[in-house]
Structures are given as structure tokens and as C-alpha cells.
Specification:
With 173 residues, the chain is an all-alpha fold. It contains 5 helices and no strands.
């Protein structure tokens, strides 16, 4: 059984993952409204992935016989100044999630909670991939620059990234 401190921290992570899912879904809707179908699909997939991350913690907590709490999710932002700013926020949010995972791992280390340490390693690797992906998208956005065709090319690049990510997931399954 894990400590109350770890249980509370894991429940906080559930909330953070749920908020990420909600935020990315909201961003997906914003993109869809702007005609950015590639970005909308990418962010919709990211939203589903964050929900899966949340459920993974629920399952782990059940396995170690502690109560996972279903989070109340705050209403996310619905309007963004630009697609560039939207992806900057996505990257910043992924960094926030990574730091939260590192905090969980630190608690597990301090408490000699080897089971939770092992469980969290998947999240460490996942967050490294997520941050790298979002940084890559921002790099492409910066390369594209600004101008009348910017949104078209950004959407096209993100759609291509989404297809690559989906193909990679299918290979794993």
C-alpha cells in the first residue's frame, strides 16, 4: 500500500491529466472553427491520449488498493490569439506535466516506494516524447514564419505529424 502523501499526489496528477485532456479538446475545437483541420485532429488525439494517461493512474491506484478520485475539471480556455500562441501553451503545459511527474517520482524515491517508482518510469519516457514532439512543432512553426499562407502551411505540417504519430502507434499495437 502506498502512503497518503503519494495517494494525494497521484490524485493531483489525475486532475492535471484531466485538465490537459479538456484543454486540448478545447484547443481542437478552436482550430476546427478556424478551418485548421490538421491541427484540430492532432489536438483531439492529444486530448484522448491525456485521458488515457489519467485512466492509467486510476488503474494503478486500484491495483495498489487506494482510492483514486474522479477530478472536477475547470473549464479550459476557449479562445487563443493565434495558432503560434496555442502551440506555445501546449508546450508549456507539457513541461508543467513533466515537472509534476518528476515531483511524484521524488516522493516515491523519498518514501522508498519502489512500485510507484517503477510505475512512473513510463510517464517519464512519455513526457520526454511529448515535450520533444511539441518543441518540434514549434520549431516548424518558427521556420514557416509569418505571412498570408502561414496558417495553411502550419496546418499541413501538423497534419503530417499527426499521421506519422498515428502510424507509429499502429506499429506498437
Amino acid at each position: 500500500m502506498i502512503s497518503d502523501k503519494m495517494k494525494n499526489a497521484l490524485n493531483e496528477q489525475i486532475q492535471l491529466e484531466g485538465q490537459a485532456s479538456s484543454l486540448y479538446l478545447s484547443m481542437s475545437v478552436w482550430c476546427d472553427q478556424k478551418g485548421l483541420e490538421g491541427c484540430a485532429q492532432f489536438l483531439r488525439r492529444q486530448s484522448e491520449e491525456e485521458r488515457e494517461h489519467m485512466l492509467r493512474i486510476f488503474d494503478y491506484m486500484s491495483e495498489v488498493d487506494v482510492m483514486a478520485l474522479t477530478p472536477g475539471i475547470q473549464e479550459p480556455e476557449h479562445d487563443f490569439p493565434s495558432i503560434q500562441e496555442l502551440f506555445k501553451r501546449v508546450y508549456a503545459h507539457e513541461q508543467k506535466v513533466s515537472n509534476s511527474i518528476y515531483r511524484l517520482l521524488q516522493i516515491a524515491l523519498e518514501e522508498n516506494d519502489y512500485t510507484t517508482q517503477h510505475f512512473l518510469q513510463w510517464y517519464v519516457a512519455e513526457q520526454k516524447e511529448e515535450e520533444n514532439l511539441m518543441r518540434s512543432i514549434l520549431d516548424k512553426i518558427n521556420l514557416i514564419g509569418e505571412g498570408p499562407m502561414t496558417l495553411y502551411y502550419i496546418d499541413k505540417e501538423v497534419a503530417a505529424i499527426n499521421l506519422l504519430e498515428e502510424a507509429a502507434e499502429e506499429e506498437v499495437e
